Amino acid sequence: MTSPQHNSWGMVAVLSIAAIVAYIDRLVLSVLFVPLSQDLALSDTQASLVQGASFAVIYAIAGVPLGIAADRWNRRLIVIAGVVIWCGATIACGFASSFAELAAARILVGVGEAALVPAATSMIGDGVRLERRGLALSIFVMGQVIGGALAVTAGGVLFDLAQGGSFNAALAALNLTGTPSWRVVLWLVGLLGAPLVLALLCLREPQRSERGLGDARGVRNVFAEFAARRDVLLPLYLTLACAAISDFSIGSWTPTLLVREFDWPATRIGVWFGGCLFASGVVAAVVSGWLTDRASKKGASEGALRWALLSAGIALVTASYAVAPDPHWLLAILLVQSTASSICSIICVITIQLRLPNELRGVGSAFTSLGNMLFGLGMGPTLVALATDRLYRDHAALDISIITVIAPAFAIATALLFVHLRARARARQ
């Protein structure tokens, strides 16, 4: 007979695969923009809106109500519905014939993917015992990291295969001969949802535990409960927002920096920069899960937050990576910076989940996603651009502009964690 714990890790595996698929569908457009823009006659502004705003805005807006739904209703069915919507919408992107149709499909991708994180983290919170919950949540986060890396590599490989005629026989059988390769790629990655839905149907909805809020689950009471916990939650959410500003700034502008400063080609950047982020994400997920589980066993969540504070300090010091005189040194320092940043963020995410009762974990995750989108994607890259164009008025100052944004972000994050830990220590005295 299969043990409940075995079933729990099977659930974590399936949800992590869902995170991989979500990030592939979310980011695969980044490697298809040139042929896609040419076929649909998109301007650079329209292309950026399809990739960014049309997805991010609705993802942020939909996240909170879907988080509340995850705290009330069957989470497995919410995840399944989300997969069907975002994968179906990804396939619809492959049929788009105009900017409006593509933007509408991307909005639906955002709606579907907004359902995953709140429901999945709530399921993991109930399905995995406390002393292993940190590792389980970090594995789920690792799925997002792997998906982000695979979106570029798998998307590029599938595009090359389509260009080489590998799918011509199947297209001919479907009377789709001559279909542009970028459409084929979107159809293929969208179809990843079919086996994923079958796997999700095999899961059981975890029994909700640790319920203690009674009837305090109405929408107004949800926000009242968060307001009552602001002293233990707000510093962590603000820390995550600061880290997101840094992470999105680095992800958006480091490739451009490598081109401008060192004349690196796109293929080399994809391998080295993508590999750097992938390695840092995997290491950070494993380390963060181990640290939080170790702290949970000792009954002291502040122990893990001390490591988050140390990591924030390291991320602050290594924010100077952008001015390294050699591209390999730049990436080596960035590897340290990105690992430290991710450890800080993941520990904060897990700590928030551990501090919330069952009835608030879904919406708690939604607030995290909301901050990542509004502050990280919404502010980070733009602040770097403004520093370059308005503050320094020199495109050659991109390295300084990156530091100008990410160093203060982690200075604030470090200060927030330090003050929070001091306040918690005084409260225990």
Automatic annotation (TrEMBL):
It is a multi-pass membrane protein. Keywords: Membrane, Transmembrane, Transmembrane helix, Transport. One of its GO terms (cellular component) is membrane. One of its GO terms (molecular function) is transmembrane transporter activity. The keyword Lipid biosynthesis does not apply. Residues 11-426 form the Major facilitator superfamily (MFS) profile domain. Its main location: membrane. The chain crosses the membrane at residues 12-36, 48-70, 77-97, 103-124, 136-159, 184-203, 232-251, 271-292, 304-323, 329-354, 366-388, 400-421. The keyword Transmembrane helix applies. It comes from the Bacteria. It is found in: Membrane. This is MFS transporter. It comes from Steroidobacter agaridevorans.
